C-alpha cells in the first residue's frame, strides 16, 4: 500500500479510540521479509524450548534466517526488571547485531571508558548530534524503561559523568500508543538506535565504512514486518466496523469507501494470528 492510500485506522486501540496507527518510516530499504511471512504459527525455541513466534526474546535467538547489521560501536540497552522482555524492541537490535548490542541492567555493565561513551537521554545539558566529536564513541547506552523510572536510572553511578546526547524529534511508527502527558514523538528503543545512527551518518560523525544512507535500515527489519502485520489487523477492524451499518441498512452512502477499504485489504500483507513481540498497547517510553 502506498502511504497516500492508507486509511486513518482510528478505533484500533479500544482504550484510546481517537488514536490511529502511524505510518511506517518512509524510504526504508530493508531485506525481503518472505521468511517471516512464511512462518506458520508459533515455534519452539531451540535453547529454552518455549513457544515463540519470530524470535526468542529471552535467549535472543532468531527462529528464521535474518539479516545481520554491523554497527560502528557497542550498544548497551538498559533494561528494567519491571518490564516484560517481549515488549522490548531492543531485543530485535540484539538479534540483528549480535555481539554488538547487549541487554543488561546498570548493576551489570561491561567495562567501558566513560570518556568514549554516550547516553541517549534528552535533558538541558545533553549534546546535539552536531556537538559530538567524530569517531568519539565506543559504547552508547539507551535506557529502555518508562519515563519515571528513566529519570532515576540516569542518576545511576555506572553512567555518572557519561555524555548525554539528544535526538531531534522523530515521529514514532510504533503501534503501542503513548500514555497521556508523553509526546507522541517519543520513539521505541530500536527506533531510537536507528535514528541515532542515521543522525551520526548525516553529520559525518562515523568512519567511511558507515557513510551510506541505508547502512542501518535492517535494524528495523523485524519492526517493519510487524508493523505490516499490525496494519493488516487494523484494516480488518476498520472494514468490520464500517460494514456493520451497511448490513443493518443504516448507512448507504459509505459503500464506495468500504469498497476502497476492501481493495486495500486485498493488497495488504497477510496477517498472522500470533502474539507479536512488542505488541500493541500502552507505552510511555522515551
Automatic annotation (TrEMBL):
One of its GO terms (cellular component) is nucleus. This is tRNA-uridine aminocarboxypropyltransferase 1. Belongs to the TDD superfamily. DTWD1 family. Its EC number is 2.5.1.25. InterPro entries: DTW, tRNA_Mod/Golgi_Maint. Catalyzes the formation of 3-(3-amino-3-carboxypropyl)uridine (acp3U) at position 20 in the D-loop of several cytoplasmic tRNAs (acp3U(20)). Residues 52-235 form the DTW domain. Residues 249-258, 274-286 have a biased composition (Basic and acidic residues). The keyword Transit peptide does not apply. Pfam families: DTW. It catalyses: a uridine in tRNA + S-adenosyl-L-methionine = a 3-[(3S)-3-amino-3-carboxypropyl]uridine in tRNA + S-methyl-5'-thioadenosine + H(+). It is found in: Nucleus. It is an enzyme of class 2 (transferase). One of its GO terms (biological process) is tRNA processing. Residues 249-286 are annotated as: Disordered. Keywords: Nucleus, S-adenosyl-L-methionine, Transferase, tRNA processing. GO terms for molecular function: tRNA-uridine aminocarboxypropyltransferase activity. The keyword Ion transport does not apply. It comes from Chlamydomonas eustigma.
Amino acid at each position: 500500500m502506498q502511504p497516500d492510500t492508507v486509511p486513518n485506522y482510528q478505533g484500533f486501540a479500544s482504550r484510546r479510540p481517537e488514536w490511529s496507527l502511524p505510518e511506517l518510516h518512509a524510504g526504508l530499504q530493508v531485506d525481503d521479509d518472505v521468511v517471516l511471512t512464511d512462518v506458520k504459527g508459533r515455534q519452539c525455541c531451540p535453547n529454552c524450548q518455549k513457544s515463540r513466534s519470530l524470535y526468542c526474546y529471552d535467549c535472543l535467538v532468531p527462529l528464521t534466517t535474518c539479516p545481520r547489521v554491523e554497527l560502528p560501536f557497542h550498544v548497551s540497552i538498559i533494561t528494567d526488571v519491571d518490564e516484560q522482555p517481549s515488549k522490548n524492541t531492543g531485543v530485535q537490535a540484539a538479534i540483528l547485531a549480535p555481539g554488538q548490542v547487549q541487554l543488561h541492567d546498570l548493576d551489570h555493565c561491561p567495562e567501558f571508558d566513560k570518556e568514549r561513551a554516550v547516553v541517549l537521554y534528552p535533558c538541558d545539558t545533553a549534546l546535539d548530534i552536531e556537538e559530538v566529536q567524530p569517531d568519539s564513541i565506543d559504547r552508547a547506552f539507551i535506557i529502555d524503561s518508562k519515563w519515571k523510572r528513566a529519570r532515576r536510572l540516569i542518576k545511576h553511578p555506572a553512567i555518572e559523568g557519561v555524555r548525554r546526547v539528544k535526538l531531534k524529534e522523530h515521529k514514532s511508527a510504533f503501534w503501542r500508543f503513548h500514555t497521556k502527558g508523553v509526546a507522541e514523538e517519543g520513539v521505541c528503543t530500536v527506533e531510537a538506535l536507528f535514528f541515532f545512527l542515521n543522525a551520526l551518518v548525516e553529520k559525518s560523525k562515523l568512519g567511511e565504512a558507515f557513510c551510506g544512507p541505508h547502512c542501518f535500515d535492517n535494524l528495523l527489519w523485524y519492526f517493519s514486518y510487524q508493523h505490516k502485520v499490525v496494519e493488516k489487523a487494523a484494516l480488518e477492524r476498520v472494514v468490520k466496523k464500517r460494514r456493520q451499518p451497511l448490513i443493518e441498512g443504516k448507512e448507504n452512502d459509505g459503500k464506495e469507501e468500504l469498497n476502497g477499504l476492501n481493495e486495500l485489504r486485498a493488497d495488504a500483507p497477510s496477517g498472522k494470528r500470533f502474539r507479536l513481540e512488542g505488541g500493541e498497547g500502552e507505552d510511555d517510553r522515551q
